[in-house]
Structure of Acetamidase:
Amino acid sequence: MTGMETFTYRPARDELAYTFGGRMPVAHVRGGDVFTVVTEDCFGGLVRGPADLPSQVCRLPYLNPVSGPFFVEDAEPGDTLAVHLAAITPTRDWGVSSTFPHFGALTSTTHTATLQPPLEERVWVYGIDRQAGTVRFQATRSDHSVDLPLDAMIGTIGVAPGGFEARSTLVPDTHGGNLDTPHLRAGTTLYLGVNVHGAMLALGDGHARQGEGEACGVGVEIATTTTLAIDVIKGVSTRWPRLETDRDILTIGCARPLEDAYRIAQHDLVGWASALTGLEILDAYQLVSQAGRAPIGNVCDPNYTVVAAVDKTLLPAPGPAYGGAHERLRRLTAGLR
């Protein structure tokens, strides 16, 4: 590994992607590279103020753009791609959020109509103070405001799916995609199973912050400058997206209904904990049941997202996950966060 940043990729508007799969690569990278990617917000930068209603300034299917894909030279189907998020910085001093008539956890949706008027479409603009590390909420119908911690994250990141598929960037699934969990912050390593030669990594949809569950369906949407380091774990497959931090191992399930997403994440965490530690599977199940956490990522996207997590210090002498990829990439990018 070089330990040096290799390049910065800044896409033009017509270079943004709206699918995982079906795209030519924008650059070639290899395991050990550290590089920076400029990403646009989920609205493509078109929502800038209260008058910019997404239904009027945005056009389907051009929502939730990602930057990429990046062809990873040494990645083959059956491998795992490790992506360490070293730094995520808002590129503007503002972010936006919104409500939609048929989108969000507390309104009628296009799938399940209810006998009530649609929600009002409304835009909130958040001031971002990068030096203070704050994001300011300002109510639109009163003078209430409050500073929230800046906790930048990447909402959408993934690789190309297998089977010649192309999936909308709005959809989370086994390939990653619109995972929308605040655990995808700087300092986290994401593990994704490789489905095609070159993996075809892409990312976007930054949030200045997001509550667990993303109830209204929209975080504080931002463009970002994101620095990441990658590695390829040869011959090790990964079925569902996994995360590792200095403290935790985490697994992600994506499905509808929410119960299925929960089960996917829990099943993967129990199996991973057992494999790392040698714990018998029911002992691992019992430990995760009593010590684990299950934060919700989103309940609005085409698939719902649930995370399962457990503190690594509670596991009996766990072996290094993926050959110690998280620690290796963290050391490689030390000082970049």
Observations:
- The mean pLDDT is 96.
- The two ends are 18 Å apart (CA to CA).
- The longest helix spans residues 258-277.
- The CA atoms of residues 128 and 135 lie 5 Å apart.
